[in-house]
Amino acid sequence: MNRLMATRLTGLYVAVAIGLAMFAGSLAVAATPPKPTISEDARAAVALMGKTLLAKEFSFHARTIRPYASENGVLLHVEHDFKATVRRPDRLLIDANGDEGPRKLFYDGKTAVLALDAGRVYATLPVPDTITKMMYVVMGRFGLDFPLADFLTDAPDKAFLHGVTSGRVVNKVTITGVPCVHLVFSQPPGIELELWLEADRGIPRRLIVTDNNAPGKPSFIAEMSDWDFAVHPADADFVFTPPSGAKEIDFGMVLSAQHAGAPQ
Fold this sequence. Notes:
The protein is α+β, with helices and mostly antiparallel strands and 264 residues long. The chain has one domain (3-21, 35-236, 246-259): outer membrane lipoprotein receptor (LolB), chain A, CATH 2.50.20.10. It is 23% helix and 38% strand. A 13-stranded mixed β-sheet has the order 1-8-9-10-11-12-2-3-4-5-6-7-13, with helices on one face. The protein is globular.
């Protein structure tokens, strides 16, 4: 998967995007970007999503299918299931499992812990005191790819629309009995995003991101469910306790171990 696709799928425009934004700012006089053409109903739907996802506490499940290129260039896919538990502004737990095995990300407001193999291999990293800033550090410094991160930032609607130049409502559909709005957005160069939001609450139910410029036009697919805004996680839920015999290694090394276990 090329860098642009990985960056968009991560949801945060870490490192490369920050550099591009600064570079673009220096050329603002020479080249003014076109004004986004996003329909009012599409903006309203995303704004409702942003308002709903600013809840102090919530959790949800997601199943993702993500493309990757094998050593001989064949486009393959890897699947993950995870539960995210959020307590704004400074607590996050990602409990994931999938083709690459189990892993968890703990964030307690001061430290991020990435644990693999039921916690038997883990790494810790001092990070800033908000979920958004923590994700910038972890993803930007180590390239940790957490899809759907837009939805966890302190401005979910703005994060999702960052870089988008056009958007509209396609139609209304029903997902597991719930009325949803189907939207489509474009982000140059060549990224297309389809987003399904619950009509009444703006809760994300499905996301498909397609890179039309990459060989095979790979698509990242996420199905989201079991949204719970009545959870009240305790501080202890976001703290990692290593099991007996666990090995602590460098944060970058644990990510390398994670990637080494990816399907080839």
